[in-house]
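Tutorial handout. Part one gives the primary structure; part two gives the three-dimensional structure as tokens.
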Amino acid sequence: MIKTIRPKLEFLSKEFIQKIIEEAHEILEKQGVFVENEEALKLFKEAGMRVDEQAQRVYITQQLAEDSLASSPSIIRLYDRTGEKEFIVGKDHVHFDPGSAAITILDHKTSAERKAVSEDLVKFCRLTDCLEHIDFQSTGIVSSDVPDLISDSYRLYIGLQFSAKPVVTGTFRVEGFKPMHDMLAAVRGGEKNLAEKPLAIFDACPSPPLKWSNLTTQSLIDCARAGIPSELISMGMTGATSPVTIAGTLVQHVAENLSGLVITQLAKKGAPVIFGGSPSSFDMRKGTTPMGAIETMMIDSAYTQIGKYLNLPTHAYMGLSDSKINDSQAGFETGIGAVMAALSGVNVISGPGMMNFESCQSLEKLVVDNEICGMACRAIEGISQRDEPIAKNLFEGFTQETQFLTMPHTRKWYRKEHTFPGIIDRDTYDYWVSLGKKSI
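Part two.
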């Protein structure tokens, strides 16, 4: 059997990856990282690290970082609400989930943004649950009609109620973890079952440059001890909160993620953790953080390559747009990002449905993006390469009247080799006109 080649996108040489990692280690050891959490500071002290308690600054040795890498699993297994369907997060397995924590929604009736409410979140979760190429649910909308004290646990509650897919979520308050953990354990049938078959991933975002807040640090600790995967979301902005060069931002990104990984392993050795992020190019003309910028996508693809080199599961915010409406910009930014992410082998790709600098969700866009995700996934399947004759036997007895429509070979391979998207227009022009000239 001839092995099918999986197409890949890579930006960095092995030597340059090693240099980036070396500089990240040096920064952690000589400059340190800020950790605003007393429990974590205690864990670092117990591990023999130099800790400046007054400044809440920790200096992490390369040895501790490498030991933590060695104890972090290279593969995470997630399960749906029933506990029967398994999803592998790691290696080159690719899964899409909608971009999360949008505070507005693009109203499909008015084509204008407005504050999101609970009804929007319910519709969002129901829609995500039936989209073929979106493997994971996300708590993608923050409802404005819900008190802040329960907004993190409420969106998880809605997600669990209206979708069976694994969910990507996160806490807004330190106190938010317990009710969220309790809900997940109740669905799974106990804390032990939840640890054995995780149902959720919790995002944890450091504050660039090189700082872990009390909230995000506590989330890392709590998730590690509960067996819930943490997704490290470093968010440097080139030239603003991280070095202006792509390579420089990668060094900071690796340093921040390594420090978060160390926290998880100090809390519980072997805790599942995902090497992720949401960095961006910073447009100094506009004062914005374009997620659809090609440089942003290059940073994402490059740090994914580093995460794979470190033998860790990976995540990135890709396959989204900065556009404010569902226009050409929304399509090409999302399409380029989704394909680049898939070719880079990102394990968890967060982005579908999202627009306006990660602040808005669109149900219409989510449906369109599902088709884009399907195309991206088809691309990385590659071209089937078989030992038997490829086509020469089909030309035996070839004449001017030969056609392939009625051949058994066509019937056998047509649906295996080709995809048939549900909403993309493939009609003739005249038929399209007869249907009312509808756009996507």
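Part three, for discussion. The chain has two domains: 70-381, 397-434. Residues 246-267 form the longest helix (22 residues).
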